[in-house]
UniProtKB/TrEMBL annotation, chain A:
Required for the activity of the bacterial periplasmic transport system of putrescine and spermidine. PANTHER family: PUTRESCINE TRANSPORT SYSTEM PERMEASE PROTEIN POTI (PTHR43848), SPERMIDINE_PUTRESCINE TRANSPORT SYSTEM PERMEASE PROTEIN POTC (PTHR43848:SF5). The chain crosses the membrane at residues 26-50, 80-104, 125-143, 149-168, 204-231, 256-275. It comes from Thalassovita mangrovi. Keywords: Cell inner membrane, Cell membrane, Membrane, Transmembrane, Transmembrane helix, Transport. Belongs to the binding-protein-dependent transport system permease family. CysTW subfamily. This is Spermidine/putrescine transport system permease protein PotC. One of its GO terms (cellular component) is plasma membrane. Residues 80-272 form the ABC transmembrane type-1 domain.
From TrEMBL, chain B:
It catalyses: ATP + H2O + polyamine-[polyamine-binding protein]Side 1 = ADP + phosphate + polyamineSide 2 + [polyamine-binding protein]Side 1. Part of the ABC transporter complex PotABCD involved in spermidine/putrescine import. Responsible for energy coupling to the transport system. The keyword Transport applies. This is Spermidine/putrescine import ATP-binding protein PotA. It comes from Thalassovita mangrovi.
């Protein structure tokens, strides 16, 4: 038996939607405009961070002096360290919690309120950040007063909470894509539940966990609104410091710090993509 | 020996519950190649998963060598599974996959590495120990899955349609390889398939299932020549099912009568059927074709068509009561011609329903 349709693909040429869309007038132009307005400011910022001049509009000569200045600035170093401390700690906590949440919602079988749990975990993504920030501020003020505890812990706690959904999404996505038969096979081969997790689930889940952790790290590192309201005295993070500086006008020093921040973020996001693609 | 006692498995809770298995009882002898055969959705995988421990029975008990195991976790049962999609651990080498069970059982390193070597030899993959599993062909992955499941020397090996993903030629090769492995290891194999040819070729015993129940258990020959019910006769192959009248019994034989000819004493699936209309299994190769007027004819009908297939021809006929039957003959008659049929009474078999 022959199949005339299958043998002659030319008879049924597929019309692809994206082709049609690309032919629409203005489509290409609008795309380029969007890209321009997205990335031109960043490009300008990066270029002028290497400018050997105080001006951020007039180019004179290439120089690394603003990087040196930024690195020599004690305030910048301090706030960068606080940013790192908060972001790293919050990332670890948020990733562990998100992994447990993903395991419970994707592998724990059906339990009462599972859909509600998933919705609740993701809900913070939907609430305007300023609302969360104000709510956290007043709630933490009460707690601070009641417990008498002060310190960076509160800021880390706030960051952990808003990082959880960002870490949860890629972990849960990876887990749902992963057939449960690997874990069944391990259990079948005499692995107790925690051994199944250690030898099979976690290694296979790792790209998702790393992606989640990096997303959480970047989100924490970039955060302004919640940090602005929750951070106590002496807990200035890098974005807050930059914000304070540009009130007095943009300086090439701020450009240099921002460029470093961009580099770190881009590296993280790129790594995330690579990790997610690796096991596909 | 696996003893499945009155096992029922329901999925879901409340009114829309699905009964995947209803009161199944089964004895799987030690050291046998035992096949679960049945159409899609009849509960084969469910029964296998209950034995492996991935599901717990809603009712009933499963015993292994007399000890109840129905409520143990999978890692507490000396039972291993070859999964349909193999489920090899993609982040481990071939050798580590094979050694995983022993590693979890905390066996000494030396024992693990000798067993891995033995297993690689057994499945003829010696050169592949350090390969990643995604660098293997389907047939090689299949054999790694077998080696991995056999390495801990389980009492029972469960195989859920392990050959369905392979092409025909590879499948034939793996069929004899599986038989060989079962013979060499002496481990009880419980094999799931919906391919009756595969089941007949490989098994010591077959359990034919339908709709969550076991319909018949027997050797391939018993299942093939003495199907108990119309379902089994139909499912196992090209058997004709013909209507007859049951008159009574004579010893362990049933006395039946077709439309014409003499009364015959034949085998019966049950000796407690009520006299009246019954169904009889009649194998195509036991039918002989006579002229229409022949006095010895038991049935009459007309030829629909015939197909030549080398050793003879397969003729389709329509009996006068409308039943279609197939006969294997050397000299086919022309389509449309009227004929009489006769059948070796020793090969007839009264069905239960
Ligand atoms: N987890 C489950 N939840 C609900 N119903 C299920 C579940 N697993 C199986 N069933 C149902 O139980 C019945 C038997 O399924 P099972 O997988 O055992 O069939 P099978 O004989 O293995 O079929 P196949 O040859 O297609 O693999 C089916 O009706 C199926 O829909
Ligand atoms: Mg199945």
């Amino acid at each position: 038996m022959t199949d005339p349709v299958g043998k002659k693909p030319g008879l049924f040429k597929r019309v692809t939607g994206s082709r049609e869309l690309r032919r629409q007038p203005l489509f290409t132009g609008i795309s380029w405009l969007v890209l321009l307005f997205l990335y031109a400011p960043v490009a300008v910022l990066i270029v002028f961070s290497f400018n050997d001049n105080r001006s951020v509009v007039r180019w004179t000569e290439f120089s690394l002096r603003w990087y040196t200045a930024a690195l020599d600035n004690g305030d910048i170093r301090r706030s960068a360290l606080i940013s790192l401390e908060v972001a790293l700690t919050a990332t670890v906590f948020a990733t562990v919690i998100a992994t447990m949440a993903a395991l419970a919602t994707a592998r724990g079988g059906a339990f009462r309120g599972r859909s509600a749990a998933i919705a609740l975990i993701n809900q913070p993504l939907m609430i305007p950040e300023i609302v969360t920030a104000i709510a956290t501020l007043s709630f933490f003020s009460i707690l601070r007063q009641l417990t008498g505890v002060t310190g960076l812990g509160w800021l880390i706690l706030a960051h952990t909470v808003f990082c959880i959904p960002f870490a949860y999404m890629p972990i849960r996505a990876r887990l749902s894509d992963m057939p449960a038969t690997f874990e069944e096979a391990a259990a079948d081969l005499y692995a107790a539940p925690w051994q199944v997790f250690r030898h099979v689930t976690l290694p296979l889940l790792m790209p998702g966990v790393m992606a989640g952790a990096m997303l959480a790290f970047v989100v924490s590192l970039d955060d302004v609104i919640i940090t602005l309201l929750v951070a106590g005295p002496g807990e200035t993070t890098l974005p807050i410091y930059i914000l304070g500086q540009i009130r007095r006008g943009v300086t090439p020093e701020v450009n240099a710090v921002s460029t470093i921040l961009i580099a770190v973020t881009v590296a993280m996001v790129a790594l995330t993509f690579l990790l997610q693609r690796k096991r596909k | 020996m696996i003893d499945v006692r009155h096992v029922t498995k329901r999925f879901g809770i409340g009114a829309p519950a699905v009964t995947a298995l209803g009161d199944v009882s089964l004895v799987i002898p030690e050291g046998s190649f035992f096949t679960l055969l049945g159409p899609s959705g009849c509960g084969k995988t469910t029964l296998l998963r209950l034995i492996a421990g991935f599901e717990l029975p809603s009712e009933g008990e499963i015993a292994l060598d007399g000890d109840p195991i129905g409520h143990l976790a999978p890692h507490e049962r000396p039972v291993n599974t070859v999964f349909q999609n193999y489920a090899l651990f993609p982040h481990m080498s071939v050798a580590r996959n094979i050694g995983f069970g022993l590693e979890m059982l905390k066996r000494p390193k030396s024992e693990i590495s000798t067993t891995i070597e033995e297993m690689l030899d057994l499945v003829q993959l010696g050169a592949f120990a350090s390969r990643r599993v995604d660098q293997l062909s389907g047939g090689q992955q299949q054999r790694v899955a077998l080696a991995r499941a056999l390495a801990p020397r389980p009492k029972v090996l469960l195989l859920d349609e392990p050959l369905s993903a392979l092409d025909l030629k590879l499948r034939k090769g793996m069929q004899s390889e599986l038989k060989r492995l079962q013979h060499e290891t002496g481990i009880t194999f419980v094999f799931v398939t919906h391919d009756q040819g595969e089941a007949l070729a490989m098994s010591d015993q077959i359990a034919v299932m339908s709709a969550g129940a076991v319909r018949q258990v027997g050797t391939p020959e018993q299942i093939y020549t003495k199907p108990q019910s119309r379902f089994v006769a139909d499912f196992i192959g090209d058997t004709n099912i013909v209507k007859a009248d049951l008159l009574g019994y004579e010893g362990d034989r049933a006395l039946i009568h077709f439309g014409e000819g003499e009364t015959l004493a034949v085998h019966a699936a049950s000796l407690s059927l009520q006299p009246g209309p019954v169904h009889v299994a009649m194998r195509p190769e036991t039918i002989s074709i006579l002229d229409e007027g022949a006095e010895t004819a038991l049935l009459r009908g007309s030829v629909i068509d015939s197909t030549y297939f080398g050793a003879g021809s397969q003729m389709r006929l329509r009996l006068d009561d409308g039943t279609e039957v197939i006969a294997q003959v050397e000299h086919p008659r022309a389509p449309g011609s009227r004929v009489g049929l006769r059948c070796d009474s020793a090969m007839l078999h009264v069905l239960e329903d």
